[in-house]
Design brief:
Elements: H1 18-37, H2 42-64, H3 68-72, H4 76-95, H5 101-106, H6 110-140, H7 147-173, H8 177-197, H9 202-223
Helix pairs in contact: 1-2, 1-6, 1-7, 2-6, 4-8, 4-9, 6-7, 6-8, 6-9, 7-8, 8-9
Length: 243
């Protein structure tokens, strides 16, 4: 049976879903302004996104009485196992061969992996995957949902993750359909541990793995020579991951 995040005893009702709009605005406006208007350096981008995510969590908790600790106790074992399993899958695909994982990780500075991968990837996973799930669940599941209602609400949460991912990459890359479709699919996969376990922390963990895998792929691309003997120039922003 699917275990889902606990719901406040006071039913919030469908009007609570307005927070989905706020999430989509956040994940669109922040990358649009920083990436396309200001053209901020990647580390400043990560810092502002992280600070904004923390502020958003605090505001949401204050106005909706969200019990964070109680929600993290729901399905944590299943969520953790699935998040690590899917995360290792991202890493394996990024290296093309499981035997090359260690070599690929060594090419990326450890501080970059921790900061841009784990910390920023986790924050992006919260905003793109965890929050849409929490909001949809608290809006429509009710205090004692049956199996059908659990399934339909989890399905709606999956759609909301796809919408949040679309808004995020619309802000970053515009209507680049190839990049956008690829990243939406990855973010949905990263959100599966939370959708199936009900634990909001599972998706950010998988999102951190996803972001690290994108750093690995980017580093390989930067070191791969192009015809003519020149190397690909450094790019200030990774295109993939839950960001």
């Amino acid at each position: 049976m699917i275990s889902m995040v606990s719901v406040n005893l006071k039913s919030l009702g469908w009007k609570h879903s307005i927070w989905l709009l706020y999430v989509c605005l956040f994940v669109f406006v922040v990358p649009y302004l920083l990436d396309n208007v200001i053209e901020a350096p990647i580390d400043l981008y990560c810092l502002i996104f992280l600070a904004g995510s923390i502020a958003f969590i605090a505001i949401y908790r204050h106005f909706t009485f969200f019990e964070i600790r109680a929600s993290l106790n729901s399905g944590w074992a299943l969520g953790s196992i699935m998040a690590v399993f899917i995360g290792l899958g991202f890493i394996s695909f990024a290296a093309d061969d499981s035997r090359k994982i260690a070599d690929s990780l060594e090419k990326v500075d450890m501080l970059i992996i921790i900061w841009r991968g784990v910390v920023f990837g986790g924050a992006a996973g919260i905003m793109i995957s965890a929050f849409p799930f929490v909001i949809v669940w608290r809006s429509f599941a009710g205090s004692n949902p049956g199996k059908f209602r659990k399934f339909s609400t989890a399905l709606a949460a999956g759609v909301s993750i796809a919408v949040a991912s679309f808004c995020n990459h619309l802000g970053k890359t515009g209507l680049d359909r190839e990049i956008m479709n690829n990243q939406i699919e990855k973010n949905i996969v990263a959100g599966l541990p939370t959708l199936l376990s009900g634990n909001p922390l599972a998706a950010p963990v998988a999102g951190a793995f996803l972001s690290v895998s994108e750093l690995m792929k980017l580093q390989d691309e930067l070191q791969r020579p192009i015809p003519g003997g020149n190397e690909i120039a450094n790019t200030p922003r990774q295109t993939g991951g839950a960001n």
